[in-house]
Fold each of these.
Amino acid sequence: MPPRGPTILALTVLLGVSAVAVGSTSGPDDAASLRGPRAEPSVSAEPPVSTPAAEDTAESDIRAARPARLAAPARPIRIPGASLFGWALLDRLSGAMAGSPNSGRVVNTVESMIKPWIAADYLRRLADGRSPAADVLNELARMIVDSNDPAAEKYYQIGGGDAVVRRLIEVCRLSRVSIEPTKWSQTEMTPQAAARYGACLADGRAAGSTWTPWVLDTMKKVRGEVSDQISGAVQGGRWGIIDGLPADLADEVSIKNGWTSYLDGWHVNCLALHRDWSLAVMLRMPSLRSAARACEDVARALVVDG
């Protein structure tokens, strides 16, 4: 949220008038700036008295300066028109999992949401800590940034096909994940498993300490709108959860969505990673645009101030 201006508390005392300034914020993460310098009050026979209204305003300013976070909403989240809907929010600090009542049971095909794993698995398994050639790294980047299907298939095969998904289950310690032989996009998992997969990408297990920063930074560069489905090699995927977050929070988030049209509608998954949490939303909707808005709505419902 934008910083609020300083609040001036006028204090009238017996020997004169002195002003005490409540320090203005220099940024949501700078807690010390909330205290700020204070002017010494004039000597008085009685302590200065603040009005209740002034105290309320000062407290409001402090609350507004705290950074936004995500937390489970008081009321269930409902998405009209969804034939399948579930979400899960993993607190990476405490390990607590929140989500829809079905978040540990309902499954969806992962689609392109698995692509960061395919890249991370390849990078982690490089022999002797070798760096990939520049053209290889560019292919892996395009797999994530443009959701490039041919690149995903290439590195899925290089990694051993179904063995890539088996390592996902093992390394990330996932349950309720099923493998569709030879088809990475049709791996199925629950929202809770997807949130744990996100945490696995973020904490270094997926890509290892050397390549995890690269994977997370590349996920921040995902580009293209819902309408930018140009080809299997260039698909727009920057929408969903990130659109429902405040700008300062969105800047810290890595994302990867997955989407494909089936006879029963669009299978869509939205994944977002933050240093404090991992959020996954899974849906089946009549259109990609409606699913993107649904992911956005879920994120907005979870945002709380400070």
Amino acid sequence: MKNNNSQLISIITPCYNSESYILEAIESVRAQTYKNWEMLIIDDCSTDISVSLINDYVKKDKRIKLFVTEKNSKSPVEPRNIGIKNARGRYIAFLDSDDIWLPTKLENQVKQFKEDKIAIVFSYYEKISEKGNRKNRVVYSPSIVTYKELLKGDSIGFLTAIYDTEKSGECYFKHIGAEDYAFWLLMLRPGFIACGTNTVEALYRVRRKSLSSKKIRAAKWTWDIYRNLLEFSVFKSVYHFIFYAIRAVCKYFV
């Protein structure tokens, strides 16, 4: 990207009060079999000891960098955009502070970018409990996702995705709900495709929050994307929303 490093992967990790999980996230990056990466952690004014824990790693691994927002943004959008602005790699990946990557993730994904139309590479992921317990709750996804396919619901696990800035350009998140879904839609709309590895490469931590209220908000945000961002007609929005709802229910029960 900015230094034209064609092999460097920039990993962007927003952090807010993640003292219980951030070390696992960092260690999962350091354990990657692919070593040419930088990790940009953007702390959103944490009030716990997250910054202190991160600084310990900054001191011993020069690939890890810490940024701190001026004020709490109450959303991962601004921290992610700060990460993108400061990223040096051609490829950009996202790892939230409470999630975990498996060791072969980057190695298995970066080699998938050979075809000109592949702008995003993603993988399956497994849901784990808040304490990190695994019960083989795997969320599967298609091998290939086009813009038209993605309109029927977000089948790209955010914590699994890497995108190629040489193809997509320097993209930023919009300050809207379901910003990650909108991010991928706008990236694929020019005709690019997303490619899956068909392997489990990440662990998604399910936190104790009101899942029902989150689903209701996600549904509203998705509708807003169809109607306001993409400017679809009501009929076209309803058509795609039906597919989205079916996928959302299936994903919920995994």
Amino acid sequence: MKQWAVVFFEQEASVRIGLALGNQVMDVSAVVADVCGQADADPRFHCFEHWSDCLARFQRLAFSGSASLDGLRLLPPLHPFGSMYCAGANYRSHVLEMARVNQQEPDEDPKLSGQKPWHFIKPSRVCAVGHEAVVRRPALSQRVDWEAELAVIIGKKAERVSLDEALRFVAGYACANDFSARDLSRRPQVQPGSPFRFDWLAHKCFTGSSPVGPSLVPASLVPDPQALGIRLSVNGQIKQDANTSDMIFSVAEQISQLSSVLTLYPGDVVLTGTPAGVGSATQTFLQAGDRVCVDIDGLGVLTTTMT
């Protein structure tokens, strides 16, 4: 069987789960209901809680998709009420880029100084949207930026997992975009140097700020998450073009560190950082009507339109 993926979509006012191969989709919502012992208005809740069993059933199915993905409203492939953990400054190229923009000497490699990965949190219910979503720019922002990222969807409860075991807790991978309202990141009425100067909520957590999709590619079909080409274009013009090998902290390192601080649950998402090429570097920001595409090797293309 060729590479397939799991999609979540809306049909006749209900959430459905499908297996996608090319442009065809096979509805497997009944399979999920059978595995979980109950049908649900939103089967994503139980699908992630029983991910290993659902995946085993998916792998045994003979693909017989007859419906087209065209016209379906795809939903982000994650738990609708889960958490999104977003890595900060995790590509070497991006760290160097932002040092040049700020006319500063680049920071020392954090690994060499014994630092650990760090993340901020987004609520998926508000921020996560699916493929072909239309995202409204925040009313007070004129500087909305793009950030192509590899999304890692957690497949089972993770607490204090070791580096060697970390990838066993991954359900799959997807494309993501961490939109950022750069001009809302600091509160102008607060003095520079104050710990209350920064506003991560307005900067990162506006509605629709984290498109994820178009599908979830099972982890077993991604041999090495640290060897994926990652690109982003705006209206067809390439802005970011890198490889996940440039991450400072790997996917496994991020999962291990996060799980040492808190419990990761099935359907949670880790956004793993963005490479060089963000709009801030050239003072170029998104305008109404812009189409932004994130393309990661083997994971498809995630498209978003700004309005």
